[in-house]
């Protein structure tokens, strides 16, 4: 029932929720049955709205002024907006956003001559009729707010001209439409209209005409054309908007378009502007000095462009609370008005400008300089300065800090002596030159979700007080440092941990059994340390694990048998496969595959990896490893593994790289290996493999690229090797029995025959000394010889039959 459950028959309808009546006449003037998009926890409520249709009986509310049915499901059986809505002559407010309507917007809405607010946004099945276009909007002279976000306008070519005839328009939102070229057809008299060529020149000319038609919208306060323009020059738009005697524009949003050019000096006219978002375009050059005239600006996003220079006048924008200049080509920030290069420090005025900012991003540029010494007094909550050329030490940091990313710079020295930021959730200092010990105060950061100190010069053991907190940690990277000590025990409390990289350190000791309790773990990299002991069998409890790297340690013992429990490696979908990730961190991780180290990130989820190479593992390769059908890379090279290659290895259909080199494997190469169609790298060298090499075009291609993949196996023969598989060079096998690992000599059978022969000879030597027993002995020997012969013949027959069935 939703809101209608409060409507009770017999009560005054003016007291019902969502109903408002006129105090003077008693007529219903407002019907507001909107459904919030999200609840208090951020969960979508759209599906929980009212279901049905908009009934024509509503027309009895002839005095209705306000109608809001947004985010319900009242589209009816045909899914169309009912045309009778255009009969509400007194309607001033109409909001049908978020409804699953389809088809064209009914032109009958043009009959609502008193309409001031029209919102049809997020109705992703709606489109404007190509024949009449938007001409019906001309009949709405009082319209102040128009939101057609996500409505398909690709068939409309006259909307700028129509907008020009809405002098009261204050808010225009055409965002998230399909990028459309603004064709000039229909905007000019037919005698002047050029033919439609469909090329870029026509598109740019259309943008120009759009801008000229918008210049009369002097009441416009918000212009949002997000993801709506296929091309155009920024100057064409801003110069025409600036022709108003006194621009009232407060928000200009042109993000996610293909707009080019250099920001013009006309930007300075928009003195009322508080929100400017030109991100994700192709703007180039430098910002004009007139940008300093936008004194009311609180939000500025110029990220993902090709800008190269900021004027010193940007220091006059002291009200900025959100600044994103990331992913441009800035090589420096101006230090003084007369000096446009910076050598050792950021200009003082810059930090004064951003002192009130809570969000600051200057990432992925080429900016040099140092961080300010008074940084702890700033109000920053989110600070991105990654991928620049910043040097010097890290100063004391702001107390309100929640996210800090200063990775990929040249910062040096130790971490700050103190860090009082109780709300810090992400600390990323990856790839700098920070040295010294990891300070103990990190254990007090109870809200920390992502800690990345990798690729620095930290040394010593992790602080013991670290065990007191960080239970919410999801991402931990300490790789490429000089850390020592045992596997960090504080991780035992981190039940939400899904990324752990401790590789390339000096860590030692055994891996704890409780590692199997970290059931959310997806990536575990411990390679290039000095860990010893066995691989804990509890590691097979990590059902979400899809990247296991224990290479280059001192680990011994056998590979755990129950690898089939690691569901993320089986290639089969299962509940819990999508573990939430810590936002904002870089998941790039190296994988030793195909004979080299490659970088993969969180988008390369198909790289399922096991690397146990360069250890002291013994025993055989577990047969159950073939159940890991999603495995892409398997590297068991440079160990002491014996036994045979699992004969069902062909079941690992996704395998692209297999390295079993430098072990003690023997027996034949399984024929099923040739069925691995994705296999592009194979290395079986320096084992004791024998017999004929399996045939197949995939294996031949791999051999042609890497002709050393069979080296060090003197018993192998057949194509592509030059050694023929004749009877002389095919190794003779003893009495073998087929098992999951292949064939082996049956101990019972072998012992029975040998014991019988030795026993007979002992009896023979004894009885030779007694003449009276000689006759009896030879009779007994004849019988036993016959039985032994039968045993041998039967055994050989069984062997040949089983061999023939393979």
From TrEMBL:
A Pfam family of this chain: LRR_1
Q: What is its EC number?
A: 2.7.11.1
**GO MF, one example:** ATP binding
- Quote the PANTHER family the UniProt record gives: LRR RECEPTOR-LIKE KINASE (PTHR48063), OS11G0564900 PROTEIN (PTHR48063:SF95)
The protein here is known as: non-specific serine/threonine protein kinase
In the bilayer, the protein is annotated as:
Single-pass type I membrane protein
Substrates-to-products reaction catalysed: L-threonyl-[protein] + ATP = O-phospho-L-threonyl-[protein] + ADP + H(+); L-seryl-[protein] + ATP = O-phospho-L-seryl-[protein] + ADP + H(+)
